[in-house]
């Protein structure tokens, strides 16, 4: 997968999670750029059919309320650069560390952790379990309140 495609998939994922239309994202980006992106420009970006400037990546991240590094995250097996393809490990190392020996700073660590948590929580089964847990907690609170007041609880 080309790096532009990886970024495009992340843009689409974040846009859909925030329930923005292509047009709405383009207009939101216009707050940070000279002018808004058209619906077609956002669509091309999501399809990986355009290169990005640093300013555009920054505007996308701001409009989607995320970080620039989060736009680069991918599950692809390899990333194709113009010169050669690199492994997922090499790609993550470049994205997160800058070099093999440099540790993540606190902000980068938090961004990666939040991305991972968001991925897990977005899974349908876990979302349902969270809802069941919340309902169970409400029922337990209602039962405890009924016991204290001496009322019958089903």
Describe the structure.
The chain has 154 residues and is mostly helical. The protein is built from 8 helices and 2 strands. The chain has helices at 3-17, 22-30, 39-46, 54-63, 68-72, 88-96, 106-121, 124-149, and strands spanning 79-80, 85-86. Strands 1-2 form a two-stranded antiparallel ribbon. Strand 1 and strand 2 form a beta hairpin.
Distance between the termini: 56 Å
Main sheet?
Answer: 2 strands, antiparallel
Number of helices, where a helix is a run of at least 4 consecutive DSSP H or I residues: 8
Percentage of β-strand residues: under 5%
As a whole number of angstroms, the C-alpha radius of gyration is 21 Å
Low-confidence stretches: 99-105
Total strand count, please?
A: 2
What percent of residues adopt helix (DSSP H or I)?
Answer: 55-70%
Summarize the topology.
Elements: H1 3-17, H2 22-30, H3 39-46, H4 54-63, H5 68-72, E1 79-80, E2 85-86, H6 88-96, H7 106-121, H8 124-149
Antiparallel strand pairs: 1-2
Helix pairs in contact: 2-3, 2-4
Summarize the structure.
The protein is mostly helical and 154 residues long. The protein is 64% helix and 3% strand. The protein is built from eight helices and two strands, in the order αααααββααα.
Describe this protein with a few key phrases.
3% strand, extended, 154 residues
């Amino acid at each position: 997968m080309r790096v532009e495609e990886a970024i495009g998939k992340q843009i689409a994922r974040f846009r859909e999670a925030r329930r923005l239309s292509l047009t709405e994202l383009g207009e939101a980006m216009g707050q940070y750029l000279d002018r808004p992106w058209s619906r077609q420009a956002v669509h091309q970006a999501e399809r990986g059919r355009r290169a990005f400037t640093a300013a555009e990546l920054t505007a996308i991240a701001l409009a989607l309320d995320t970080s620039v590094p989060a736009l680069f995250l991918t599950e692809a097996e390899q990333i194709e650069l113009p010169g050669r393809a690199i492994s997922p490990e090499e790609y993550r190392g470049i994205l997160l560390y800058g070099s093999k020996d440099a540790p993540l700073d606190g902000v980068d660590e938090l961004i990666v952790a939040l991305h991972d948590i968001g991925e897990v929580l977005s899974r349908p089964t876990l979302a349902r379990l969270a809802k069941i847990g919340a309902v169970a907690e409400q029922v337990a609170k209602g039962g405890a309140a009924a016991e204290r007041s001496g009322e019958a609880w089903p």
